[in-house]
Amino acid sequence: MTEQPIWAAIAAALRAEIAEGARRPGDRLPTEAQLADRFGVNRHTVRRGLAALADEGLVRSRRGAGVYVAPRSTDYQLGRRVRFHRNIEAAGRLPEKRFTLIETRPARPVEAAALGLDETETVVASDGISLSDGSPIALFTSIFPTDRLPGMADALARVHSVTEALRLCGVPDYVRTSTRISGVTADAAQAARLEIRPGAALIHSESINVDTTGRPIEYGQTFFVGERVTLTLDHS
Amino acid sequence: MTEQPIWAAIAAALRAEIAEGARRPGDRLPTEAQLADRFGVNRHTVRRGLAALADEGLVRSRRGAGVYVAPRSTDYQLGRRVRFHRNIEAAGRLPEKRFTLIETRPARPVEAAALGLDETETVVASDGISLSDGSPIALFTSIFPTDRLPGMADALARVHSVTEALRLCGVPDYVRTSTRISGVTADAAQAARLEIRPGAALIHSESINVDTTGRPIEYGQTFFVGERVTLTLDHS
């Protein structure tokens, strides 16, 4: 058996401290000089160990401010069936969806196009925030066609879950047909709601869900916090 | 037939000017006052027309700096077969991949794990930049197992295409098994290479491709420019 290089041993020691919770997300690691002292090596060796941890996404360096334990990101699976509560639970976290607005109003052009509606038709528009283990991970807007889903506004207000509300409105199942993903930075209002700094990276996703007959029943836009969520795709 | 509201007519006129190329990505639109004057309406009506265009992603407002024609984003399809050149061509753009580094070196832990290698094995590591119609859209790192792909470093240097280089190394076809997507902001070095401002949003993707026997043959990390690329997923 080959002996572990010293930098790898340092990485392994810090990795174990993070895994055990002795160092938590957001904690600052000791300086390179302190770590060199602790392990009895030079700073070059410490730096190589830290670089390995950064490669794994376990730590992040902020220029001039040291090295921090990276936030634990929540995996969020995208595929033919995307269900918020189930997804967050599958990642071992506690899901919560808070609706901040539910209103019925005329469809906007982009919404009418996505849902295949006439522009004279109305939609149920809902806004809110998604949380994972109590930490805000996304702002969402979900748009539903009023005519196809009578009672949807009341149902959403009652059950705080899109899947449950759709079931109450006679849609027992639905599937996603498309997702479009781009990257943007948070403006001041988004940052305040998501408890991140303005300018932080957001993943913007736009999606369409259809019922079992293929009729669009939800057009969604979501802004995920880039460092708190990893969208995962299984292509197999 | 119902008559079009005035705000919708204003949006349609500006949409046509953008579509015809009279207003190009990055161009600043006339001010609200100028547009109100041109169309003979009040500023409230102009604002509603501009809001519709912003909803469609055609224009963007920068606080205190007016309204601009949004950059034309390149659609990039993710799925079981992801091919850079084919993807960019499918979006009606000219693809180009420039390799800035091709080297053979020991596998890093995260690479060894992704490719199912022993940490004593070596990989061919390549770095580069992807362009669409001459505009930088992504920085990529592609890692290949040396043992499974003899001659890969030379092939990459010769053909500047992963798909072609793999074919030359005896891999006629490959499929993607997984993609992981998160959001980050560009550091100074990334920003300079991508010709964007430091702090601009990047989409970070991590992916694994396998050959037809299921053996991993490429581990990729890509940083897409958020405002120049839209990752698209077709779940049907």
Automatic annotation (TrEMBL), chains A, B:
This is Phosphonate metabolism transcriptional regulator PhnF. GO terms for biological process: negative regulation of DNA-templated transcription. Pfam families: GntR (PF00392), UTRA (PF07702). It comes from the Bacteria. One of its GO terms (molecular function) is DNA binding. Gene3D superfamilies: Chorismate lyase-like (3.40.1410.10), Winged helix-like DNA-binding domain superfamily/Winged helix DNA-binding domain (1.10.10.10). InterPro entries: Bact_HTH_transcr_reg (IPR050679), Chorismate_lyase_/UTRA_dom_sf (IPR028978), CP_lyase_PhnF (IPR012702), Tscrpt_reg_HTH_GntR (IPR000524), UTRA (IPR011663), WH-like_DNA-bd_sf (IPR036388), WH_DNA-bd_sf (IPR036390). Residues 4-72 form the HTH gntR-type domain. Keywords: DNA-binding, Transcription, Transcription regulation.
